[in-house]
Structures are given as C-alpha cells and as structure tokens.
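agent> Task received from the user: take the single chain below, predict its 3D structure, and emit structure tokens. No templates, no multimer pairing.
agent> Plan: (1) validate residues, (2) run structure prediction, (3) serialize to tokens, (4) report one or two observations.
agent> Step 1 OK, no nonstandard residues flagged.
tool_call: predict_structure(input=
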Amino acid sequence: MKERPVMPAKENLQTWFGLSRASFCVLPRVLMEAMPEEWQQKMADLLHEYSDSFDTSLNGAVHAVIISAKDRDGKFIKLPEEILDYRHSDRDFIDSVRTKRVGGSDASK
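)
tool_result: status=success, residues=109
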C-alpha cells in the first residue's frame, strides 16, 4: 500500500480537494455512519470543533444549504433514496459503493 507523504494540515486539506473548484465538502450521513465507531468519534470531535469555531449561518445570512446532483452529462438528477434515508440504511447499497473495508467492522444497521 502506497504511503501518503506527511504534510502540514493545511496542505493535507488542500491536497484532498485537489484541483477541483469545490467550495464545500459534502459527506452523506448514511455512509459516515457505516464507518467504524473510532472513525465516527474522530469525525464527531472534528465537526464539533468546527462548529464551535465558526458561525456557519454567516451571521444569520444563511438558513440552509441545498445539495443537488448531476450525472456525467451534467444533467440534474435526483439523489438516490439510499443516500437520503439514513434512518433505514441499506447494507447492500453501502457495500456496493464501499471501496475498502475500514477498521474491520461496519457500523451500519
């Protein structure tokens, strides 16, 4: 397995975004909850730290952010129900999009 070079945190985050023009990082809850408990705790800690550091409403100017999806031809499409329905996660769907098993356990129900 190829090791990632150790870089300062800022470069790691910038490297993660790559050359994309993405302004946001969107992570589906259903997939995050399918990660191992240790990963989920680390992510929760980071998200709490982030929300404690910034007013993400931008001083009340933003009430909500809406996510949309496009297919490879650039046409808007409806997000799959399996991504939206985090209360009833679909293990087969999660396994179909999983690229590798992390931590030896799966938290999805």
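agent> Step 4: summary for the user.
Residues 68 and 85 are 16 Å apart (CA to CA).
agent> Done.
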